[in-house]
Amino acid sequence: MAQTGLNMSRRIRRTPYTGRAEAHGVRGYSVVNHMLLPKAYAASVEEDYWHLREHVQVWDVGCQRQVQVTGPDAAELVQLMTPRDLRRIPDGQGLYIPLIDEHAGMINDPVLLKLEDDKFWLSIADSDVLLFAKGIAFGRGLDVLVEEPDVFPLAVQGPKAETLMTELFGDEIAALPYFGFGTFDMLGTRQVIARSGYSKQGGFEIYLEGGHLGGALWDLVWEAGRALDIRPGCPNLIERIEGGLMSYGNEFTRANNPLECGFKRYCHLEDGIDYIGREALLKIAEDGPERHIMGVTFGGEALSGVAVPLAVMAEDGTVIGEVTSGIWSPRLGCNVGMSMIARGHWDAGTRITVRDTDGKLRDGTVSSLPF
Amino acid sequence: MAQTGLNMSRRIRRTPYTGRAEAHGVRGYSVVNHMLLPKAYAASVEEDYWHLREHVQVWDVGCQRQVQVTGPDAAELVQLMTPRDLRRIPDGQGLYIPLIDEHAGMINDPVLLKLEDDKFWLSIADSDVLLFAKGIAFGRGLDVLVEEPDVFPLAVQGPKAETLMTELFGDEIAALPYFGFGTFDMLGTRQVIARSGYSKQGGFEIYLEGGHLGGALWDLVWEAGRALDIRPGCPNLIERIEGGLMSYGNEFTRANNPLECGFKRYCHLEDGIDYIGREALLKIAEDGPERHIMGVTFGGEALSGVAVPLAVMAEDGTVIGEVTSGIWSPRLGCNVGMSMIARGHWDAGTRITVRDTDGKLRDGTVSSLPF
Description:
- Two copies of one chain form a homodimer.
- Chain A is α+β, with helices and mostly antiparallel strands.
- Chain A is 20% helix and 32% strand.
- Chain A has helices at residues 18-23, 45-54, 74-81, 129-140, 161-169, 214-225, 237-242, 278-287; strands spanning 3-7, 28-32, 35-40, 57-60, 66-70, 95-96, 99-100, 106-108, 111-116, 119-123, 145-147, 151-157, 181-186, 189-194, 203-209, 231-233, 291-298, 310-313, 319-329, 334-342, 351-355, 361-367.
- Strand 1 (3-7) of chain A pairs antiparallel with strand 1 (3-7) of chain B, so a sheet runs across the interface.
């Protein structure tokens, strides 16, 4: 992946784990929610990929900021922000919810934790959902508090994550379903842990409340992981793309609606609930989306990443999409990427070409996701 | 300034000028509004400082995104977001406006351009004001469109900026008052130019509408600047601090109110206008702010920047603030920084100590701003 220098300042906030990441030799970051996200340690992306698929890693994902909504109108405010029907949320079950604006454009795609009837956390991707929520609350005169609590997720990912977490927190944690969460004793506190994370290798996210405990939590996980070949890690570009995990700002933006993103099952299109963008979304559903997120495989030299989207073309040269994330897959032996693909071209198996940054054309094929 | 690697992705958006910045050897960025801000070229911060004070520079500040508010209720929406009285804005006059939330916490500090009675641009610092505005508009049912237009500011800064801009746009541009703006012919289009910018050395910002013209505009400015020793530049940390120019996310955050930031003259505290946070702001005004932004000068080794705020202590050891931006001033021969300073300690001349990242104490003094 292309990398250049990042100048540090207070505005690019550190997490409670940044010191540990530095001690482990972090050599590259991204910036998410005005906060550092480690993106590279000593290992290459490919070494890191194989390790993540076989062992266990600890990830500083403190940048997954929580937007905490509390108060008598909290449920109403959260529902206004998403087309997903929130009327019956099972206890202890996190929900992936698309947030949209008045044009049904994607605002964010957080995981929602309903902690109490009047207390919610939205664990957000890279946009200031807090300001969106504050604006709506003010405009509607809702009786809520919208805050960024002192909560910083730490992820434990990989096939050995369950072994590690069971050692620390007992068998109860192994009973958590996918996206399920519960509270567990830790460092003299009770903390929320969910079976979730930004990989397809299994794992957990600890929603640490109390940033001052960050170093102690990292060390706790690290010590328990020593026998399991634990390493510091981060969302891995190869694994993420192979797994079809989209990234807000990369695969989709406010220019995309949730139907294009494959979120139809999270969109309530009947009567019964009120949310921003409902009319626009109904219209899009009626017409059918004009594009849809798909995988693409393509040949040529091994890509190390995509900083500038690569045009995707039909056989007649028409531009039908752009690869927004892409990299060489050592397992599949080709480049893999994700692209919105125009209607009429999105069937898996469709032959396409991808235009390289230097103008060269590479033959490729539309694929379903995950690869 | 501490620097490490930045991993590139589409989410960290390029500007229309990024290619030119790369061609000029940019070697470090910050990220503002999910977009690249060049922060370092070949010259050291100090070399760049002296050059900026004597010559002219072209800055890629495309990251100063515009939030465009249009429609019959546009003026109402913009007024709701700020305590500054917007009832009488002189034509062609940009206004610096603090934006606050319901607790009177700072949301952003944009420059507002009123382009027409029902068309406004907010040229923002680093937070998603667009989402705040959309939320309020939805909640209140306002008849507005809130969008991010295809507008990317390019700054021309330094004492020779007026010579350069006059050559390109004629004498009319020299008549612009501070923060005044007008429209000028450029590359076959009409474009907004303001006398403004994030330095105290004078200069202009071209609000280029049409990102595809970015390269051509950069080249136009560059050619006109050759005889004036033009260089690619960026907000300079030494010059910014000496000039007392605060930065949202650094000197102040949502935890600070506008009175602490020295924005009292932008706060309408009488009856007559309605805005978010008015009650909270009135209460703060009544009690008086608990801290205020000030300068601090301090000794010891030359600082190259501040990534983690440095505690500021009174003579009895009480923590009374923290240096959020700081650097060695070659002109003043000491370190200079900015800090919120607690009430009772903020008089210029008050002796303080600054605690270094390694725990060492440095003697210093509270100063007025600018230095």
